[in-house]
Amino acid sequence: MRRYVVTGGAGFIGSHLCQALLERGDAVVCVDDFSSGSLDNVADFARSGRFELVEGSTYEVLGSVGGTVDAVAHLASPASPVDYLAHPLETLAAGSSGTEAALRLAHAHGARFLLSSTSEVYGDPLVHPQQENYWGNVNPIGPRSVYDESKRFSEALTAAYRRTYGVDTGIVRIFNTYGPRLRPGDGRVVSNQSRSTVMAARRVAFAISTTWYGPCSPCSTPTPLDRSTSATPLSCGSRSWPSW
Fold first, then answer.
1. How far is C-alpha 68 from the chain's CA centre?
2. Residue 68's pLDDT is what?
3. Are strands 3-7 and 169-178 parallel, antiparallel or unpaired?
4. Could you tell me which of 166, 125, 135, 12 has the C-alpha nearest to residue 76?
5. For residue range 98-112, what is the model confidence (pLDDT) as tens digits?
6. Which residue among the candidates 59, 84, 147, 213 is catalytic per the annotation?
7. Alpha-carbon distance 26 to 20, whole Å?
8. Pairing of strands 207-213, 223-224
9. Which is it for strands 112-118 and 71-74: parallel, antiparallel or unpaired?
């Protein structure tokens, strides 16, 4: 049985990752300050006997995580414009101090590290679809920069830890994602559109579009996703994550 630390594990995507790992029979340490995540998303996981919840900001509480750590998935960050515009400094801290705390934990344990990044690293792109050799069209001081630049810094820091310390790292840039546990008032386009769909049809499709950074082939086509496949990105390029 492997033991995984998931920061932001009570959030929309993080909670699905925690659930997928628990369903595989693994142990999960969920770290979340509930600034945008919800206790309701993980309330049932304790029944497994393999789920631990650590409440607090990543950069404040990760040092208290003891025991074996096989891998760290860093998802902690406000991701909705509603959240990161209301909490700009906290967003920057999650991407800087939070990312380094997660990298230090992975380095200390010789563990795999996965960074959840975003398509927002491309800023307001002039190229569609974006490929990994496109560096973006960014505004480093605009209101949205607190999120965009925090993720760009997170990626740079992750790459630096890999080059400097040899940490086994991976970066996944997540594009439009929607489905169960997405807050109706999230504020992003897909959320706003799906809210009316839920109201009318009581049903939401669950899909994800991702671009990979690392040893995997680029993919930018929306792909249906459910809980059983939400851990797939973590298996890419490392023996530390479960293979299918």
1. 21
2. 96
3. unpaired
4. 12
5. 999 999 999 999 999
6. 147
7. 9
8. antiparallel
9. parallel
What is the biggest distance separating any 2 CA atoms in the chain, rounded to whole angstroms?
A: 52
Asked if residues 67 and 44 have their Cβ atoms less than 8 Å apart, the reply is no
182 three-class SS: coil
Distance CA 158, CA 66 (A): 22
3-177+208-235 CATH pick, 3.40.50.150, 3.30.565.10, 3.40.50.720, 3.40.50.300: 3.40.50.720
Quick one: pLDDT band at residue 187, thresholds 50, 70, 90? low
Q: Check if 178 is active-site.
A: no
Q: pLDDT tens across 114-142, in order? A: 999 999 999 999 998 888 889 999 999 99
**How many CA atoms within 13 Å lie on the side-chain side of 43?**
5
